[in-house]
Amino acid sequence: MKNDVKLKGWLQNFLGWPLYMGILVLAMTATAYVFDIKAGFICTGLAAVYLIIALWFYFAKRPLVMRELLLFAVNHAQIQKQLLSDLDVPYALLDEQGRVLWINKAFGMVIRKDKSLRKRITDLFPELSSHPFSDSDQEAVWDVAYENRFFRLHLKNIYMSDVDEETEGEGSFRVGLIAAYLFDETEKIQFQQEIENQKLVAGLIYLDNYEEALESIEEVRRSLLIALIDRKINKYLASIGGIVKKVEKDKYFIAIKKQYMESLTASRFSLLEDVKTVNIGNDMAVTLSIGLGMGGGSYVQNYEYARTAIDMALGRGGDQAVVKDGETINYYGGKSQSQEKNTRVKARVKAHALRELLETREKIFIMGHKIGDADSLGAGIGIYRACATLNKKAHIVLNDITTSVRPVLERFVNNPDYPDDMFVRGDRAIEMADDSALLVVVDVNRPSLTECSPLLGIIPTVVVLDHHRQTSDSISGAVLSYVEPYASSACEMVAEILQYIGDNIRIRQAEADAMYSGIVIDTNNFMNKTGVRTFEAAAFLRRNGADVTRVRKIFRDSMSDYKAKAEAVRHAEIFEDAFAISVCPAEGVESPTIIGAQAANELLNIVGIKASVVLTEYQNKIYLSARSIDEVNVQIIMEKLGGGGHMSVAGAQLKDCTVEEAKARVKETIKKMLDEGEI
Fold it and tell me: 541-594, pLDDT tens digit by residue?
């Protein structure tokens, strides 16, 4: 076997320099012969001695030099290996498939395994399993974890090129390895988390029914009630290291550390229920709303988030906490029915503001929600009457005409008392609209559910009148927003506005019937969400010619509709001993969503049923109608499914799924919310 070690490059040239000098000596000897024969003989002798010594050194001493070079190389390699082995940075060599070939001591201490154990790097760090190893020469960086410690892993491809001396320049092959470095970032992440936990969360607490609660007890006890509420709030915040500052008689500013948010959300803000236990003879339990803001770039922005959150909480009826974390909004609580306000001051202020807006516009569009119902149409007709009284041209945007609104609509279409363009379709309204018009949206506050959503982008001046609880995607930028979740219907709100918008308003009989029918439908014949102001609005409409008998005839069902509703009730399934879930047949029914809503109301008449959900397939969507009496907030159930509404009346729409899949999603949502204590 040939064991000779060949030298190449500068080292070989360095060892051969005496021989190269021999050539120079021979040249000098030949030159000496030219000038003097005797001198040439002397130089020849000296050159011969030099060449003998040079050849002896080159061939005799070369093995010794090679031995010293090899010994140096071995020692150098051992030193390098020892340095890598003792390196404080965890280091490993992997093959191209990610198998561990060698690790140093620091890497072994991290994984706490035998160094000789061959494993894939993905076995140690499962986070890498979804990322195949790349052939790129660029360094790859991954965040990994191992045994409750966090690391930054660097992977770098390295190659060893073996070129055969005889075929040098003709071809080569590369053996690939991967160098892996670990940098422990556990403390860094812990410090970052600690900094994040120490950030302050701004918050606002408003008492929802402060005045009403005080009026329900005798005057000498009022100060005690206030003191007990203050104590509850201060004790609750003190338990989590928060601070409280009372800014008004029924408003508080709070600041807490972000690290306590997890415990607050886990308990679903128990303060909401604790404050209701304060009772010193007051007939009405005190409820409060909480708005928290975090995730902003500054404390000022967090405070603005808190103001947005508290507005959302109040707009949804109060008795709940809303947390705005950047663009994300989460809701907690909202289990109690919102309290009706006895004062009409707000209605009067909104009515005067609406009148000022109507008087400054020559073209007005009124729009409700998709698949309009009696409440949406009745409220739109009420606003139309206000516009007509002020001699303003108005159009009601209406696309789909359902069976529930056709009897009402027939009294206005082809009626000489009303213009032909009183009702226009959405595409026609888009052609007519411009940025100088006014858009009044009734009975809806979500852009995606409006009858013609493009109008919101065309007309900048928007007014919103609605009684549904607000969600995170409500209409933004409205110049006038009157959203009152306590109201039974949009028609009730419009009836109050009409009483203050002008002294000379005269509502015609057909208009009074339309608005009265909206109240009847949304209250389920005055049995749901009915308050004192509901009856006052109904009385106002009765004085203006609304007839109960005519309204009753309007809402009589056809035989096919009645049978469909009966089928939905007959096939209802009782889920978790309290929820009635059914499917309303759509075949042969002109407006199945309306029948589904009626069936949901009927199911509440069954003993033991706390809430009902009826699914209806219509126009390639699954429509959900949810109803309850008082124990279950169906609004938060529907919000989980992308919908919304009231505590006792809510709905949602599901796309790209079958009825059975939709039913399974409803059951899964209810089950999860029951397990987590949300309902």
Answer: 998 888 888 888 877 778 888 888 898 999 899 998 889 999 998 887 877 888
Sign of CA dihedral 469, 473, 476, 478: negative
Tokens of 397: 């945007």
- Can you read off the two tokens belonging to residue 390? 């002020």
- Give whole-number Cα distances, 247 to 239, 254, 272, in Å: 21, 10, 20
Asked whether 380 and 367 are in contact (CB, 8 A), the reply is: yes
Containing 463, the helix (H) or strand (E) segment is: strand 461-466
> What's the CA gap between 509 and 239, in Å, rounded?
60
Task: Give the largest CA-CA distance in the chain.
Answer: 152
DSSP 8-class letter at 112: T
Q: How far is CA 587 from the centre of its chain?
A: 37
Could you tell me which of 272, 263, 271, 251 has the C-alpha nearest to residue 335?
272
- How many whole angstroms separate alpha carbon 457 and alpha carbon 376? 21
The DSSP letter of residue 251 is E
d(CA 540, CA 348) in angstroms, rounded, equals: 15
pLDDT digits (tens, 9 = 90+) for 372-419: 888 899 999 999 999 988 888 899 999 888 777 888 888 888 888 888
CB atoms within 10 A of CB 514: 32
* Secondary structure of residue 99 in the 3-state scheme: strand
**Tokens 């002008």 belong to which residue?**
502
